[in-house]
Amino acid sequence: MPELEPTGELNEDFSSPGATAPPWSAVREVLTTSEMFWLSTTRRDGRPHVTPLPAIWHDGSLHICTGDQEQKAANLAAEPRCVLTTGTNRMNSGLDVVVEGTAARVTDQATLRELSALWKSQLDWDFAVVEGGFNDGAGRVGLVYAVAPEKVLAFGKGEPFSQTRYRFG
Questions:
Q1: Among residues 4, 7, 18, 79, which one has the fewest Cβ atoms lying within 10 Å of its Cβ?
Q2: Which residues form the Pyridoxamine 5'-phosphate oxidase N-terminal domain (predicted)?
Q3: Is 2 part of a structural domain of the chain?
Q4: Domain that residue 18 falls in
Q5: 95, 155 contact by CB (below 8 A)
Q6: 138 lies in a domain?
C-alpha cells in the first residue's frame, strides 16, 4: 500500500520565530529508525495505560506486537484508538513524534511474514508466524496491530523550536 503524504501545518503559537515545519521525510525518518515507542491506551474504566514497546514503520503504519494476555491487548480490544510516541530525552535537540490512530489487527499471513522479517532485521527479534499473529518461541501468542496515522505531531527541539501537525487525507 503506498504511503500517504500528509500536509504539514506549523503552529506558530508554539514555535520559535522563523521556524519552519520539518519535511515529512524527516518525520518518517524518526518513525523508521526509532526502536522504542510509548504506547498510550485506555482501560475499560477510562484510566490511561502507557507502556514502552518496539514498533516497526512499514507501508505507512506503525506496527506493534503484544501478548494476547497483556493489558495492552485488552485495552485495544475495547478501545482501539491509541497514541504512539517516540523521540529523544533531550530538551534542545532532536525531533519528538506523536502518532494518533486506530489499531487494527494484522492477521494476513503474507503481511505477518513481512513484519516478522522486519522485526528480525531491525530489532533482532525472532518471531514465528502463526495463525493470527506471532509466536515468540516460548509458546506465547503475539497479536500484531497496525496503527495508521490519523494525526501526527512533530516537535522540533532546539532553536528554532517548532510544533507541526500533519494531517492525512
A1: 18
A2: 26-123
A3: no
A4: 7-167
A5: yes
A6: yes
